[in-house]
Structure formats: C-alpha cells, structure tokens
Amino acid sequence: MLNRISEENLEEKNIMNINVIANYSKLKLTLFFLPLFFLTSIVAFLYSQNALSVDKYLLIQKNCFYFINSRLSQFPNTIYNLTQVGDALIFLSFLTIFIVYAPKMWESLLSASLVSAIFSRALKDLFHVPRPAQAYDDTSFVIIGKTLPGFSSLPSGHSITVFTILTVLLFAFMPKKLRYKFLWSFLIIITGLILVFTRVGVGAHHPLDVITGSIIGYICGLIGIFISRKYKIWDWINNKKYYPVFIALFLICCIVLLNKINNENLIVFYLSLTSLVISLFKIITVYVKK
C-alpha cells in the first residue's frame, strides 16, 4: 500500500525537473577556476604581444579575421541562419517547452540572462573596440546581413548569449556516466563554437571577441545557476496559476517572429516559431487541465 502511494506521488512529480535540481545541487564554485584561467591567459597573451591597446588588439588578429571570414562566408545562407541563434529570442524560443517540464532550468536561464545582459553592456562600453566594418575597409571582407559599424565589438554579445544558455543546458542535463558526460560536454562546446564563429563569418566580430564572449557567457551561465540555487526569485515559474503570463509572452514572441519572417525569410525563424507554437499549445493544455 505504501509502495503504491509512493509510486503515485513519484509519478505526480516532474522527474525531469527533479533531475535538473539534482544536477545543479552538485555544482561547486571551483567550476569558475577554468574560465577565469582562460580569461587570464588571453590577457597574458595580449600583454606578451604588446596588444592591450585597441589598435594592437585589432592588428594581431587581423589576418586571422580575414582567413575565418573568407572561409565561412562561402556558406552565406547557413551561417546567416546559424548566427541568428545568438539572438536570445530565437535561442530561448527553442527551450520554451521546458517551462512545463523543467522550470528549474528556466529559473537559472532567467537569472543568467540578466547577468549576461549586464556584463555584455558594461564590457562593451568599457573596451570600446570598433567592429570590423569600423576598423577595416568594409569592401575587403565579406559582410552577410546588415553592416554593423560602431565600437561595440568586444565582447561579442551573441557569443555571451549562446554560451550563457548552453552552460545552463550543459549542467541541467549532464549525464551520470563519465563517458556520456564527456560526449555531452563535447557536443555542447562544439555546438557553441560553431554558432559563435558565425559572427566572424558574417563580418560582425573579430575572433577574440567571440572567444572572450564565449568564456564570459560560460561564467554568466554558472552565476545564473548559483543564483537560482540560493534564491527563490523565479520559483513562481513552477506555479501553474502564472501560466497565463507565459501564454501572453509566447503570443507576443510569435508576433515578433512573424515580423522577422516578413522582413527576412529565414528557416531558423520558422523553426523558432514552430517551437513556440508547440510550447504554447502544451502550456495552454496543462493550464486548462489544472
């Protein structure tokens, strides 16, 4: 009798969410050591090359920028679609279904996204590095999409967004077995690097911009997880009575995506919209059955 009651109670709980909480609870602050080491190494490298000034920072990676840009720009449609994933609206749309199945992950995503937005804006203003179109002759390399001028190249905001979200995903669904942990981590990292280097391919960023942005994004993702673990800022996400808020937000996002499709007929926008519609249907169904 007790076993049956226990099984029924277990079925009522969201197993995926329980696993996410368990994975997050295992994380330790030592995870910050590696990204901080990488950032320190980048600074040390720039110092050794006498490249801590903006002009020298651009000079030491100019050839690398042209090389990567010329290679990746051979696949304009592919990289232009992929680079859109660095837009938080697009990437997060693919994950909206987890509001129902893994709300704890979304608590971390929201905290991490706020942290990443602050870091991105503050660091761009601090470093004030010109974008490629501002730094070089914009006819000397390939620009796909809109030309982005100005002095907001370091760090890459898209790269921060991509690795912030991927870091939250990485630890949320980390497998238990070591070999699967390695494969999962490798897959996440490779996916992230492919996505962020499209920013060089479309002519929007220098290589070190996206590398630095990726490391900062990883740090932001970890900070978001630790915030959600310690503070209950977003625990209302798991309360179905607030689902109308998400329904309204999803509808607004659908309208924004339809507008994007109207302006630029990209496959990634259709995929993102499809994901949103599926999530919208699911969350309405769960709310109605509450």
From TrEMBL:
Give the residue spans that cross the bilayer: 29-47, 79-101, 156-175, 182-204, 210-229, 241-261, 267-288
Name the UniProt record assigns to this protein: Phosphatase PAP2 family protein
Pfam families given for it? PAP2
Q: Which domain of life is it from?
A: Bacteria
Tell me the ranges covered by the Phosphatidic acid phosphatase type 2/haloperoxidase domain, including all copies: 108-225
Its keywords, alphabetically, are: Membrane, Transmembrane, Transmembrane helix
